[in-house]
Known about the structure:
- The structure is a single chain.
- The chain is an all-alpha fold and 451 residues long.
- It has a single domain (36-229, 250-441), classed as Growth Hormone, Chain: A, CATH 1.20.1250.
- Helices cover 83% and strands 0% of the residues.
- It is built from 20 helices and no strands.
- The radius of gyration is 22 Å and the shape is globular.
- The relative contact order is 0.14.
- Keywords: Cell membrane, Membrane, Transmembrane, Transmembrane helix, Transport.
- This is MFS transporter.
- It is found in: Cell membrane.
Amino acid sequence: MTTESTATTESTMATETARGQQTASTETLNTKDMRRILASSFAGSAIEYYDFMLYATAASLVFDKVFFANLGPGFALFASFVTLAVGYVARPLGGLIFGHFGDLVGRKKMLVLSMVIMGAGTIAIGLLPPTAQVGMVAPIALVLLRLVQGVAVGGEWGGAALMAIEHAPQKHRGFAASFANAGGPAGAILGTLALSFFAAISGSQFLVWGWRVPFLLSALLIAVGLVIRLKVSETPAFQRLEAASEKRRVPIVDVLRHSKRAVLLGLAATTAFYVCQAMTTVWGVSVAVESGADKNGVLNIKAGAAVLTLVMCFVSARLSDRFGRRRVLAFGALLGIVAAYPTVLLMTNGTLWGFGLAIFIGNGLVQGVLYGPIAAYVAEQFPTRHRYTGASLAYHTASMLGAGFTPMIITGLTLAAGGALWPVAAFWIGILLVAFVAVRATPEGTRRDLD
């Protein structure tokens, strides 16, 4: 090829690239393909988080009585929260496994597989006999099935977020990625309402069979989710990576070599909203009921707060596209710092209005503001070749530390302090301060080229 033809080719490529960038800047999310992609991210995450968060609610109200009743009330609840934490411990492992193959063979295949695995684990929990019938086999099996759930949801978030963000135009990436996150509260709403409904109709039989039905209904939801998910195409960013045919390292090696700082800052920022979630929707539910609030009322209020979380997730994601991820996340952290102690007091006053106000502030507002931009914030810190692995590692390690260990930590703090609540609020404020510092130390990714 002559020098002239080479120059012509390079000029043509540059023109096409510029034209592509110009087109991308004027694209919207209102196309048939993008609507299908966003629906897939939202529905898939909602279904998987229905399964995952259904377990969290059952851990607060059911499992201590069904699988750990022989330990006494306080220690039974602690043991139940330990099994809850097991799922969060497994999430980084799931993120690494699914992230590895998602970065090498594609996002879509891993999303389908994660949904099948999650459904199988959840249905099996619904069929698990109590400790009174099979002895220690029951709690051991419960822990193993929770591990399965954790691995599955560890693969879900990264894939769902990347499917949205890697398909979306640059100026709408935050809002697009929020559909994957919004599936979380949507699934929590569905799971909480299902458990509340069957608690009401089963009455005294709730601990016998009522709690099991929402777990078994997962089979229907998984079938619907697979139909939606199988219609979505692979992301353009991954297709470009494959077309480049460059030699790629093992993704986790690439992450540890080039993106350690991004992982640590993303982990610190993400932990904040997971602590908000655990404080209000797991520990808060448990202490509200123990303090005298009506169980069904608490569950219904929790579902209402999740609606506000869902709305705030979309609103804050939109704002992050306009003002930047860092500003919105920093605001959410400061809002949580101010609200932490009053929220803890309200959750424990034994009334439905107190619990309602607390969860609407802590879960609906604070968590909602932090939740909306977080998917784009984390994903934008990593290049395509190891984005699934890097983003999943940061996000799910935060979920393990924030949501998995917080109920145990809070329960331990209250036991050690003789019931005093100030250590609980201090813990919450400390986590939010760390998140604020991490966000301010992170480069803004709103206008970053994903490739």
